[in-house]
Amino acid sequence: MIKVAVNGFGTIGKRVADAVSAQTDMEIVGVSKTRPSHEAMIAQKRGYPLYIADISKKDQFENAGMKVAGSVEEMIQAADIIVDATPGGVGAGNRAMYEKFGKMAIWQGGEDHSVAGFSFNSSCNFADARGRQFARVVSCNTTGLCRIIKLADEAYGVKKVRATMIRRGADPGDAKRGPVDAIVLNPVTIPSHHGPDVQTVLPDIDIVTMAMIVPTTFMHMHVVQMDLANAGDKDKILRLIADNPRIGLVKGYTGIKSTAELKEYASDLGRPRSDLWESCVFEDSLSIVDGKELYLFQAIHQEADVVVENVDCIRAMTGSAATAGESVAMTNRALGFETI
Amino acid sequence: MIKVAVNGFGTIGKRVADAVSAQTDMEIVGVSKTRPSHEAMIAQKRGYPLYIADISKKDQFENAGMKVAGSVEEMIQAADIIVDATPGGVGAGNRAMYEKFGKMAIWQGGEDHSVAGFSFNSSCNFADARGRQFARVVSCNTTGLCRIIKLADEAYGVKKVRATMIRRGADPGDAKRGPVDAIVLNPVTIPSHHGPDVQTVLPDIDIVTMAMIVPTTFMHMHVVQMDLANAGDKDKILRLIADNPRIGLVKGYTGIKSTAELKEYASDLGRPRSDLWESCVFEDSLSIVDGKELYLFQAIHQEADVVVENVDCIRAMTGSAATAGESVAMTNRALGFETI
Amino acid sequence: MIKVAVNGFGTIGKRVADAVSAQTDMEIVGVSKTRPSHEAMIAQKRGYPLYIADISKKDQFENAGMKVAGSVEEMIQAADIIVDATPGGVGAGNRAMYEKFGKMAIWQGGEDHSVAGFSFNSSCNFADARGRQFARVVSCNTTGLCRIIKLADEAYGVKKVRATMIRRGADPGDAKRGPVDAIVLNPVTIPSHHGPDVQTVLPDIDIVTMAMIVPTTFMHMHVVQMDLANAGDKDKILRLIADNPRIGLVKGYTGIKSTAELKEYASDLGRPRSDLWESCVFEDSLSIVDGKELYLFQAIHQEADVVVENVDCIRAMTGSAATAGESVAMTNRALGFETI
Amino acid sequence: MIKVAVNGFGTIGKRVADAVSAQTDMEIVGVSKTRPSHEAMIAQKRGYPLYIADISKKDQFENAGMKVAGSVEEMIQAADIIVDATPGGVGAGNRAMYEKFGKMAIWQGGEDHSVAGFSFNSSCNFADARGRQFARVVSCNTTGLCRIIKLADEAYGVKKVRATMIRRGADPGDAKRGPVDAIVLNPVTIPSHHGPDVQTVLPDIDIVTMAMIVPTTFMHMHVVQMDLANAGDKDKILRLIADNPRIGLVKGYTGIKSTAELKEYASDLGRPRSDLWESCVFEDSLSIVDGKELYLFQAIHQEADVVVENVDCIRAMTGSAATAGESVAMTNRALGFETI
What pLDDT sits at residue A66? Predict the structure, then answer.
């Protein structure tokens, strides 16, 4: 059993902890929190040992009825590998601690590629993670782009990608961030940094990205256009997507045309936290123009798609699964991840 | 086993079907749908026999891979009791059909009191439902008001209620309704119709209500002020709420101050569809001014709080439980309804 | 003086009436409304004779203190030309009336090209409108696309256009339409109908468009990518935009990065109704990749950009100005349309 | 001519500057800004001398084409009185500077009462401002409450006020603040601090307030309930409101039922920046229950209602008008403030 600690039990961390906990070859030895909150209560209810960043706040936790297992440093020592899910920009500062105790660590996409020197995506570079001490699972948007680009590239060759990301302003549980009523160019410059981020995983892909933020909470939406090297076949691509364990096909007959309806469907399916771990390509949007231009819309659940990548990354680094296919199958099976 | 049909498998109907299905003394014999959709697919996945309003559309369903059990009339005949969860205003037209086949039926709060001549709330008038052919479960907002007013009235006597309802504009899965950026007085006149609707359940309560709609999807928020007949004790009321099986207390130490955080917490708890069947009173808001004026904020999950009331109403009408307390305990236990 | 009637005094109609009224060569002889409302009150305050669709409702208007000049048919007879700004789909039904009285008419983009057989944009086909009885001013989105495509095509030749439109869900004054929290693919299919609509004005342009709706009210946002025939020069294009009387350049040093800030700026400028009649290209977004791929973001004020096109179209059809340049200058000058 | 400086040319400051500039007895001698932005450009266009907080940034402004008149300290010296419209909490720190130069100053409601020791509202305590060096114009919400409470108190005596404020999350031009999809209790405790803030102006009023934030930008909405000392007459109160120069009556026949429609109406009226300087009481909401309980909805434009109060406060402190009535009439007339 691989002993996993989750440093930062927030939007991503709590999901990674639950996903790890559901696997047969790994277990949670601790999660960390900076202050008592409803998320700390959830850690207690799940039975995850709760470690805290500032041990002087132990009383605050205990007064709220929460048992403290120790400090974050103690948690690190108890683990084989740490999933660092602290807020973007904070994680880099933890590297010295992981090095000090000689532990493996995985960062999230909010950190720069340089924090680990290796950026991971199950579908693209699983084997390259083997034996590394450090890795970074790319962001939700980059993950979604990598999956579909890899699929198209293997089938037809991809000469150029142009992608626009229409991003959610805040997560559903976030009552502070906006915008309330605006479309925000983020960044206002073209191209955005997302293209180079895809290239940390797929260095040979020529890609131009653009991004904006809109007042919604449920999912991001991607407009993806790819120039293919060879003429593509729509039905074949739809089959490849349907067969891909990390890309779902939103069927036309469901009548689903929005992120709201898609999340409702995930909720109806009984998915934990209504999570969509797969990229969701809209069947009716997929189109090939002039033989070699592929267009599609895909929705990305920002809270969920990287969760399964973290589980795979643990296996890739520790050698607990031999291939991406094997790990992905194990991860999905443990989560009861059925097709949407 | 009480044979239950759910006429209208939408936002409320699908939840009632799942809640009925979880009980030990009742079962789903059928649900109805007007056209193939992602919700019809969910009915299939759950194994609920799928009946359709217009049998001439059978082909449409079958082409989408859904098996049709028959017409709605056939479903009615197979049931002991029908939960009518068709859209507001549609249900009244179904009464003749239920009468024709001599079946019991329960409508939702979108219909007028007169459709059934009896309006139900588990906490207030369970015993009065016994032996009736028809009943109406009051709306989500009225249900929430009835629960807290009844609690306060039993403890201290309620002389007057003033309540403002800040309502969500659309359900989370609804991608059409607004508003996008407005506070809408609905109605612009004061008092609103919600007070008289409370009086269909609690006829002796003096109540003035006001209502508006805001651009959010997760929950309604109520500002409730009650003039008490006798001086109230804050700690006692908090205990009564904590002990009430249908009212939850959002504890101050959770840090939850918004509907978004509250729904996130329900999601983290693993509640199906993140549902909050209980009214959610904010502990830190509850206040007694000048000894006899009680104030509080409560959040109401518009998709969920009436679901458990429908289950209780089935028992109340059929005599399957002797008391409200017994039925509520059965309903809650079957759902694994733990305290928030 | 060209006598202009505005049939439908709503979001577009009231703006066209004010813009026409500001010109020196045309005047408003009447506007129409179906029921008394705050917009009808505005017509009264402006001194526009108020005609009503259903003369039997005359009492309703008079009881609200509004003077009724007559029926819509009487208004048509009093005019030389009618701007039909009735809701999308309604206008087509008015064609017979305009024909009956032998009047010229202009429809909006909510109607099909076939209603007039000629679709108009000042920058593209002013001269072709001369002498026509009927014309259609294309929609706000199509207008915005036509302006920038024409500019690029004249400068470098446009081989292909790929454009994504992120559309506002409702106008600021609309308290009913949604969505509240969703990204809605509208349509879910690719390409959308907007490309062919551009081709009603610019038939030789190869264009693929995609569209979605988001929960905001202020403006649409376009992501435009054009394959140029000849290598483009960024500075030259920026100069062309700055010099174009119908395209504005949102300067980088203003710090404006969103539709909300842009509308605030228009409001601060003292523009009537904060209207942005120009397409608004973000200076910092304009980028040329690989020499021949032009990218940019432009924001489109859905309530305003077609208003000035209607004024120009009146002149184009009636021959009141000899060239597009002359008409555009007259229109802009009359509105005090200074550079953003 | 009273020489007025506006320290902080943002949402409130830019409006105060324009309103002061429109008066016949006062003039703008300078406005301040911390960095070049679209608002600084507006100051230039208006011809307001532009002073900057950090004179070392002079180059930044000049490079963006903006002329810098000097430092904020120089601006203070050039003025008779300063309207401090810096962000909430910043203004208090400027008091020493105003004292150093012996200047009069007015703060906004984002500062505590103690910053000035006197809180102002034109309708309530104009005369008490005479001769003071410092005053604070209360917040937009407190201003709106004071106006209507004063009106009711003078007519019938007010024994108790219960008011709920449903507040906008962000201003229309603010693309950062949220929430996107939540009702946020702010504060979660009852009563909120707004009641005591009303008492800084009207110390004898018994008032309980509650407040929340919702995802909208246009206006706040107040639910006001007052227990009257003497039986009230609805028609008389409506007349008093119609006659009050700072409270507007939203007539039923306009069909306006939301903040969105109300702002649209202000926009159609040609109000600068669509500003509503008056509190907006909805005629159809005003209701008297049991003879002595007054209920009403009023909408408050958070960006505008305090603007005219600042102008009056300048006159009250400097003695430029003898009475509130005289000043209010001057202010309104200069703005062309006609009845909504």
Answer: 92
User: What's the one-letter identity of residue A129?
Assistant: A
Active site residue A140: yes
Please state the CATH superfamily assignment of the domain spanning residues D140-300 in this structure. Dihydrodipicolinate Reductase; domain 2 (3.30.360.10)
Among C155, C108, C141, CA closest to C11 = C108
CB contact under 8 A, B162 and D164: no
The predicted pLDDT at position D338 comes to: 81
- The confidence score (pLDDT) of residue D330 equals 97
Cross-chain CB nearest to A260 (options B173, B259, B272): B173
* Region B91-103 average pLDDT: 97
**C139 Cα to chain D: minimum distance (Å):** 22
If one looks up domain D2-138+306-335 in CATH, what number appears?
A: 3.40.50.720
Residues of chain D neighbouring B184 (CB-CB closer than 8 A): 257-260
- How far is the C-alpha of C305 from the C-alpha of C222, rounded, in Å? 14
Peptide bond into B191 cis (omega under 30): yes
As a whole-number percent, the residues of chain C with pLDDT over 70 amount to 100
The conformation of residue A86, written as its DSSP 8-state character, comes to P
CB contact under 8 A, C299 and A225: no
Q: What is the 3-state secondary structure (H, E, C) of D87-123?
A: CCCCHHHHHHHHHHCCCEEEECCCCCHHHCCCEECHH
Phi then psi for residue A3, to 5 deg, are -90, 115
Q: Hey, what amino acid is at D102? A: G
Dist. CA C26–CA C20, nearest whole Å: 6
pLDDT digits (tens, 9 = 90+) for A84-129: 999 988 999 999 999 999 999 999 999 999 999 999 999 999 999 9
Minimal CA separation from D178 to chain B, in Å = 12
CA of B212 vs chain C CAs: smallest distance (Å): 12
Which residues does chain B have within 8 Å of residue D252's beta carbon, measured at their own beta carbons? 188
Q: What is the mean pLDDT of residues D186-194?
A: 98
Q: Which of A162, A188, A212 is opposite residue C225, by nearest beta carbon? A: A162
Q: Label residue B306 by pLDDT band (50, 70, 90).
A: very high
pLDDT tens sequence across A236-284: 999 999 999 999 999 999 999 999 999 999 999 999 999 999 999 999 9
Q: What average pLDDT does range D185-212 have in this prediction? A: 98
Residues of D at the B interface, defined by Cβ within 8 angstroms? 162, 164, 166, 179, 181-191, 208, 210, 212, 214-219, 221, 223, 225, 252, 257-261, 282, 284-287, 289, 293, 295-297, 299
- Contact: D175, A179; criterion CB under 8 Å: yes
* Chain C residues near residue D174 by CB distance under 8 angstroms: 260
Band the pLDDT of B27: cuts 50, 70, 90.
Answer: very high
Query: Is C188 within 8 Å of A285 when comparing Cβ atoms?
Result: yes
pLDDT at B26 > cutoff 90: yes
CB–CB of C188 and A221 under 8 A? no
Assign a CATH topology to domain A2-138+305-335: Rossmann fold (3.40.50)
Q: Is the dihedral of CA B52, B54, B59, B64 positive or negative?
A: negative
Paired with D226 in beta bridges are D161, D294
Whether the CB-CB separation of A84 and A8 falls below 8 Å is answered with yes
What stretch(es) of chain C map to CATH 3.30.360.10?
Answer: 140-300
End-to-end CA distance of chain C: 30
Name which of D166, D182, D284 is nearest B183 (Cβ-Cβ).
D166
Tens digit of each residue's pLDDT (9 = 90 or more) over A26-45: 999 999 999 899 999 999 99
Residue D340 has pLDDT above 90, yes or no: no
Nearest-CA distance D237 → chain B (Å): 15
**C142 alpha-carbon distance from chain centroid:** 9
Interface test with A, best of B35, B62, B66, B264 (most A CBs within 10 A): B264
pTM greater than the 0.80 cutoff: yes
